[in-house]
Amino acid sequence: MIRGFYAAKTGLISQQNTLNVIGNNVANINTLGFKPQVVAFASLLYENINGGAGADISTGHGAKVQKIGIDFTQGELEPTRREMDCAIQGDGFFGILNRETNVVTYTRDGVFHASVEGDQKYLVDISGNYVLGKDNNRINITAGYDSELIGVFSFPNRYGLELLGTNQFAPTPDSGAAQLDNVSIIRTGYIESSATDSATEMVKVLQANSAFSFNSRIIQSTDDMEKTVNQLR
Fold first, then answer.
1. What is the 3-class SS of 34-87, one letter each residue?
2. Dihedral pair phi/psi, residue 198, rounded to 5°
3. 206: Cβ–Cβ under 8 A, 6 or more apart, which residues?
4. How far apart are CA 205 and CA 27, in angstroms?
5. pLDDT-derived band of residue 50, with 50, 70 and 90 as boundaries?
6. Three-state DSSP class for 171?
7. DSSP string over 127-152
8. Distance from CA of residue 148 to its chain's centroid?
């Protein structure tokens, strides 16, 4: 019966993590270019126990969250009629250079602005960080804005990217290094909406809640059986 406690406990932890992921997806339903996360599960170790009469019974130890991945489904492209708004049609990302840390990250959010610095102008994102051009340098728009200068980058394995907390992605050894993307298209005057689908997330909430309640009942039932056994001693 101790196995029942541990198996149900792992189930509760897994479903709590799932609800946390769903909550983050729903919270970003209006975040431009946001890509929702998805949870993958894996079974914990199985073992065979003697079931009597020479028969073995296979028993498991619950489940765990194997991976929290990213759903890169294309979001809807919405017109804004604003020249500096850009959306990517395809699998690419905009490169962003943080002006404080000089660290390059990548995003699908294409709401850009002009930053006046002395007698020069640079293209920046909504946080004031520099947008990278095709040459991996800042884009100087002093002489005029041209969306053709904006770089679009892709990765050998985009599913290996690390999702940061500011709608930015960071490359990892699993994703490979960024490379210029000549396939994706920049649509000017558009923004990409969040790829989170509210109906899908609500279904996931119901499923996770049901699984959470089921594991809670297992713990309660196991506890009741333990009490009964102890009273018989």
1. CCCEEEEEEECCCEEEECCCCCEEEECCCEEEEEEEECCCCCCEEECCCCCEEE
2. -60, -40
3. none
4. 14
5. low
6. coil
7. TSPEEBBTTSSB-B-TT---GGGB-E
8. 29
Decide: 97 and 91 in contact? Cβ < 8 Å: no
Structure tokens at 25: 């997806």
Read off the amino acid at residue 73. Answer: T
- Give residues with Cβ within 8 angstroms of 54, minimum separation 6: none
The rounded distance, in Å, linking the Cα atoms of 28 and 50 is: 50
3-state secondary structure of 172: coil
Question: What are 145-169's pLDDT values in tens digits?
Answer: 999 999 999 999 999 999 988 889 9
DSSP string, 85-97: BEEEESS-EEEEE
Cα–Cα distance measured from residue 104 to residue 138, given in angstroms and rounded to the nearest whole number: 11
pTM across the whole model: 0.81
Question: How much is the pLDDT for 55?
Answer: 66
One-character DSSP codes across 100-135? TT--EEEES--B-EEEEETTEEEEE-TTSPEEBBTT
**Among 75, 72, 35, 70, residue whose Cα is nearest residue 187:** 75
Q: Is the dihedral of CA 9, 62, 3, 226 positive or negative?
A: positive
The residues, any chain, with a CB within 8 Å of residue 184's CB and separated by 6 or more, are: 88, 89, 90, 91, 92, 152, 154
Round to whole Å and give the CA distance between 24 and 37. 8
Query: CA nearest 196: which of 154, 167, 164, 158?
Result: 167
Task: Please state, in angstroms and rounded to a whole number, the distance separating the CA atoms of residues 154 and 177.
Answer: 9
